[in-house]
Amino acid sequence: xxxxxxxxxxxxxxxxxxxxxxxxxxxxxxxxxxxxxxxxxxxxxxxxxxxxxxxxxxxxxxxxxxxxxxxxxxxxxxxxxxxxxxxxxxxxxxxxxxxxxxxxxxxxxxxxxxxxxxxxxxxxxxxxxxxxxxxxxxxxxxxxxxxxxxxxxxxxxxxxxxxxxxxxxxxxxxxxxxxxxxxxxxxxxxxxxxxxxxxxxxxxxxxxxxxxxxxxxxxxxxxxxxxxxxxxxxxxxxxxxxxxxxxxxxxxxxxxxxxxxxxxxxxxxxxxxxxxxxxxxxxxxxxxxxxxxxxxxxx
Length: 299
Ligand SMILES: Nc1ncnc2c1ncn2[C@@H]1O[C@H](COP(=O)(O)OP(=O)(O)OP(=O)(O)O)[C@@H](O)[C@H]1O
Ligand SMILES: [Mg+2]
Prior knowledge:
Blueprint: E1 9-13, H1 20-33, E2 38-43, H2 49-53, E3 61-66, H3 68-80, H4 83-92, H5 94-101, H6 105-117, E4 131-135, H7 143-155, H8 159-172, E5 178-184, H9 188-205, E6 211-217, H10 224-232, H11 238-267, E7 272-276, H12 285-298
Helix pairs in contact: 1-12, 3-4, 3-6, 6-7, 6-8, 7-8, 7-9, 9-11
Magnesium ion binds at residues 20-21, 46, 48, 135.
């Protein structure tokens, strides 16, 4: 089985705000350093990747913003093989009606778009990449995107839509080509949700999560002995007291977070790797580079 970065498509999933964009960017940096032509796909109007990465640091790293609406138009055009007809349908509200009536169609065309980007010779033109990394939207943990091709392959058994969906579905379900990375925070609910996501993916699509990244883990700065000493300090000035309390509360937090990581390792089937919390108000390129080096070491 190829490792995560030797696949063609990697979906970075996880709940809102856990660090999906950060981890997707870090993965992109690793793959580009290894000389692969990488496209980082941002779904919907997030536009955060370019802000985080700044001027593109590596020759082979590209950003692509996948707009579900535009992807739908492209898809329709391709399906109908006629720009005129697609234009008429797209503009008439009929298409909107059809897509509203068909749950998961947005996800299907979004998957279709990233699938296309992951081909060496994309249908829609463009350069072709070795690897597409998708920063999946938080809603539904990315499950909806992974599920849509299979749903459509089943609904539209015959005809071009069914065939198209089936091709995407078999690509998505082929672990040699597609990987799933889930990002979580080291807290009780996120850990539960990550385990639940892994099970749902297995149950519904017979698909495994390749890697779980626990992001922004509080480092344990002190050993047992240090902590015991801190706990024994009695009295002291106001300032010293505040500093000691802060240190102890940080220690307790780190301990709780590490306990959640252990719990996740026990409950999950996928390997769990951790990334440290970076103590900066905003992550910049240099921090991403550092996280990417750490991630590469652990993958
Ligand atoms: N390891 C880390 N240490 C410190 N801050 C981090 C770390 N990872 C991410 N952050 C910060 O946390 C915030 C959320 O990260 P990010 O945007 O990657 O999450 P996300 O899952 O993509 O969020 P959304 O669901 O909103 O797209 C950002 O401000 C980011 O800079
Ligand atoms: Mg994001």
